Amino acid sequence: MPEDIRNRLGLRPVINVSGTMTSLGASIVGPDAIAAMTGILPQFVEMGDLHRLASRAIAAATGAEAGFVTASCAAGITLAIAATMTGSDLAAIEQLPDTTGLKTEVVMLTGHMVDYGAPIDQSVRLAGAELVLVGQSTSSHAYQLAGAIGENTAAALYVVSHHVAHYGMIPLATFIEVAHAKGVPVIVDGASEYDLRGFLAAGADIAIYSAHKFLGGPTAGLVAGSKALVRATYLQNRGIGRGMKTGKESILGAVAALEAWGRRDHAAVRRRERAALDHWLGVLDGRPGVTATIDPDPTGNPLDRLKLRIDPAEARISAWDLVDALAAGDPPLIVRDHEVEHGFFHLDPCNLHEGEEFLVGDRLAAELDAAQRRNEPLISCFATRVQRQEDGILAWPD
Ligand SMILES: *Cc1c(COP(=O)(O)O)cnc(C)c1O
């Protein structure tokens, strides 16, 4: 094992059992991507040709006509929306975010109004566009979408994610049918979705993915779709995309990660992830106040997580206090706690290094044992915890 660089830098050696989180450095970048980035960094290349190479690789992996690598999925959304507004008109591209003379409206379902560390509507507004929301938080109908599309509609944006409302959303096929009947292109934000082909195969004009999530690439966004729209997205690098550009290392690293994904033994990865879940189930079996169940990914990614429901009276600790104890301990364990106010959290095995599942099991057992020794259950005020986290953000860099 090479030296862990975090020790030298004084950074905590966190174990990521939360999945793919920007706040933890996204994912483990695989050896193919690292080798590609190392190889290209000292060399000069003609960037237009490197982008052509990336376009071919993205097309091969997704079934698209063309592809483009930008800084992130969030950047991809902004630039693809801009592409629907400007096309390949270089004067219009330089004019943004001034939208005089351009279509400016983007329709999206209200239940798709997600936050992925920043609000999705801001990725749309950055292009100079404005969002037109369709339906309510957990309900939407095709007639509402049709009614929201007008002369000024540039694009229709559809989000596939565990973050969206899980029922009452217009199915993608219907969404595409309604938008296309009105001549409006459909952009799918599939940042975290393992399915690289399905959205385009269903008729979407653009599908956008993160390179640094399941693909295990460097931080980048992959835009795949029709040649005309991807070209117009690429050309935004001469405009608002300049500040979202990728270097040669990110472009080639993303391509290498994409190609490695195609060669990966996915069944073996699933077996390893399943073995981690089984190990934790064994560790947690019979512990008071802990109910552990296997929870399939809500959007159908081939990924299961372990859901731990905590009864604070029996476990003698609340779910969020257990999460905080795991994060504060040695080694620090960061679990998936988006819904912890409901008394549960998840363990996600997809970003563990070999053997870390055993450390996770040991730490869980140690914290649950310590909780049993308490005279009074530890159940802190949840609102205070939220406030403490927000205060912490604002105190940076202290
Ligand atoms: C992570 C995520 C994003 C943002 O992706 P980045 O590549 O980190 O910008 C956008 N949409 C969804 C649904 C996501 O999960």
Automatic annotation (TrEMBL):
GO terms for molecular function: L-seryl-tRNA(Sec) selenium transferase activity; transaminase activity. Its cofactor is pyridoxal 5'-phosphate. The keyword RNA-binding does not apply. It comes from the Bacteria. Belongs to the SelA family. PANTHER family: L-SERYL-TRNA(SEC) SELENIUM TRANSFERASE. This is Aminotransferase class V-fold PLP-dependent enzyme.
